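Hi team,

Below is the intake form for Swarming motility protein SwrD from Neomoorella glycerini. Please confirm the fields before the structure is written into the shared record.

FORM ID: S-0412
PROTEIN: Swarming motility protein SwrD
ORGANISM: Neomoorella glycerini
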Amino acid sequence: MIKVTTLDRREIVLNAELIERLESVPETVITLTSGKKVLVTQTVDEIIARVIAYRRQVLQQASSQDEVK
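The structure came back. Fields below:
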């Protein structure tokens, strides 16, 4: 899950696994796998960085759980 800010300044949380496409128009349009589109204030590069950080965190948590077993 990643936090983003909509154009009306609401902070929302998106499931990063459902992102299909990012476009800069010049706002950033996030297209979800459902076809729903979300306009956000973050740049495409910021969204990519947040998705990478989210996935890194998920992998680290999975790795630490494997070490406990």
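SUMMARY LINE: The longest strand covers residues 19-24.

Thanks, M.
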